[in-house]
Automatic annotation (TrEMBL):
<comment type="subunit">
    <text>Homotetramer.</text>
</comment>
<dbReference type="GO" id="GO:0005524">
    <property type="term" value="F:ATP binding"/>
</dbReference>
<dbReference type="InterPro" id="IPR017953">
    <property type="entry name" value="Carbohydrate_kinase_pred_CS"/>
</dbReference>
<dbReference type="Pfam" id="PF01256">
    <property type="entry name" value="Carb_kinase"/>
</dbReference>
<keyword id="KW-0808">Transferase</keyword>
<dbReference type="InterPro" id="IPR029056">
    <property type="entry name" value="Ribokinase-like"/>
</dbReference>
<keyword id="KW-0521">NADP</keyword>
<dbReference type="InterPro" id="IPR000631">
    <property type="entry name" value="CARKD"/>
</dbReference>
<feature type="binding site">
    <location>
        <position position="40"/>
    </location>
    <ligand>
        <name>(6S)-NADPHX</name>
    </ligand>
</feature>
<keyword id="KW-0456">Lyase</keyword>
<protein>
    <recommendedName>
        <fullName>ADP-dependent (S)-NAD(P)H-hydrate dehydratase</fullName>
        <ecNumber>4.2.1.136</ecNumber>
    </recommendedName>
</protein>
<feature type="binding site">
    <location>
        <position position="152"/>
    </location>
    <ligand>
        <name>(6S)-NADPHX</name>
    </ligand>
</feature>
<comment type="function">
    <text>Catalyzes the dehydration of the S-form of NAD(P)HX at the expense of ADP, which is converted to AMP. Together with NAD(P)HX epimerase, which catalyzes the epimerization of the S- and R-forms, the enzyme allows the repair of both epimers of NAD(P)HX, a damaged form of NAD(P)H that is a result of enzymatic or heat-dependent hydration.</text>
</comment>
<feature type="domain" description="YjeF C-terminal">
    <location>
        <begin position="5"/>
        <end position="272"/>
    </location>
</feature>
<dbReference type="GO" id="GO:0110051">
    <property type="term" value="P:metabolite repair"/>
</dbReference>
<feature type="binding site">
    <location>
        <begin position="186"/>
        <end position="190"/>
    </location>
    <ligand>
        <name>AMP</name>
    </ligand>
</feature>
<keyword id="KW-0067">ATP-binding</keyword>
Amino acid sequence: METLTDNILAKTIRIRPKESHKGTYGRVCLVGGNDHFGGAILMATEASVYSGAGLNTTLTDPSNFVSLHSRLPEAMVADFTNRDELTDLVSAANTVVVGPGLGTDETSLKVLQAVFNTIAPGQTLIVDGSAITLISKHELKLPQAKLVFTPHQMEWQRLSGIQIADQTDEANETVRKQLGGIVVVKSHQTRIYTPTGSFLNTAGTPAQATGGMGDTLAGMIGGFTAQFANQTNAVLAAVYAHSAIADELARHQYVVLPTQIIHELPRYMHEHQH
Ligand SMILES: NC(=O)C1=CN([C@@H]2O[C@H](COP(=O)(O)OP(=O)(O)OC[C@H]3O[C@@H](n4cnc5c(N)ncnc54)[C@H](O)[C@@H]3O)[C@@H](O)[C@H]2O)[C@@H](O)CC1
Ligand SMILES: Nc1ncnc2c1ncn2[C@@H]1O[C@H](COP(=O)(O)OP(=O)(O)O)[C@@H](O)[C@H]1O
Ligand SMILES: [Mg+2]
C-alpha cells in the first residue's frame, strides 16, 4: 500500500494551455438530490464547478432548481425524472456522478436504472451515497463504464458484504476485482483500491466529520476525472486535495465545512499546477 503525498497533485493538475475553451475541460453530469437531500447534490455540483470542469449539468428534483441556480449560476439543471433529458445529458458527459442525496425510494431507483441503461463504456461513472445503497439493496447489475465507487465504511459493508471490522486490504481488493474499476473506501484514513495498486490517504482531519463532506469529494472526483486524462491519478489527486485543504483550514478551525473546502479549490489548484 502506497501512501499518497502531494506528488500526486504535480502528476495530475496541469497548467492550462492558452489555446483552450470550456469544451477542453470536460462535461460533468451530476445526478441526485431528492426533495430532502438537495444540499448533497448542490455541494457535489459546486465542488465540480470549483474544480474547473468546463461544463456542469445537474439532474435533480425540481424542488432544488431555485436553490441550485441562486447559489451556482454556472451550472445547468434538469429534472431527473425526465427520461429524454436524462438520456441526452448523461450521454453528452465525460463523467457522470450519481448518488449524492439521491435517496432510496422508487423514484431514486428508477433514476439510477436510467443512468445505468444510458452510460457507455468510454464514460467515467462515479457511484456515491444512495446509489451504492440502492445497488446493494436491489442487487443491481453494474453497467460497462469506467467505474469509481466512493463508499464510506458502512456503504462498503452493504456493497461488499464485508463487515466494517473485517475490511482488510486483502478482502477489499478481492471485492474490487469482482466489481471492476476503482474503489475509494472512505474513513478517517481513506484507502483507494485501483487495478494498478492500493493507496492510503493519511491527510485529513476529524474537523471534516460533518454531513456533506463525501458529497463534496464525489463532485471533486467528477471535476478532476472530467479534465485530467489519467483517471486513476485524477481520483487519487481529488482524494488527497480534499483532505489536504481541510488540514490547512483545520489549523485555525474546530470544524471545516464542505463548502469552505470547495471555495479553496481554485487557489489550491493554482498553487499545485504543473
Ligand atoms: N445536506 C444533505 O443533503 C446531505 C445529504 N446526505 C445524503 O444522505 C444520503 C444517506 O447517506 P448517509 O451517509 O447519511 O447515510 P447511511 O445510512 O448510508 O450511512 C450513515 C451510517 O453509517 C455509519 N458509518 C459507519 N462508518 C462510517 C464512516 N466511516 N463514515 C460515515 N458513516 C459511517 C454512520 O454512523 C451512520 O449510522 C446520501 O445520499 C447522502 O449523499 C448526507 O451526505 C448528509 C448531508
Ligand atoms: N475523522 C476523519 N478524519 C479524516 N477524514 C474524515 C473524518 N471523518 C470523515 N472524513 C471524511 O469525510 C468524508 C465523509 O464522507 P461521507 O460519509 O460520504 O459524507 P456525506 O455523505 O455526509 O457527504 C470522507 O471523505 C471521509 O474520509
Ligand atoms: Mg456520502
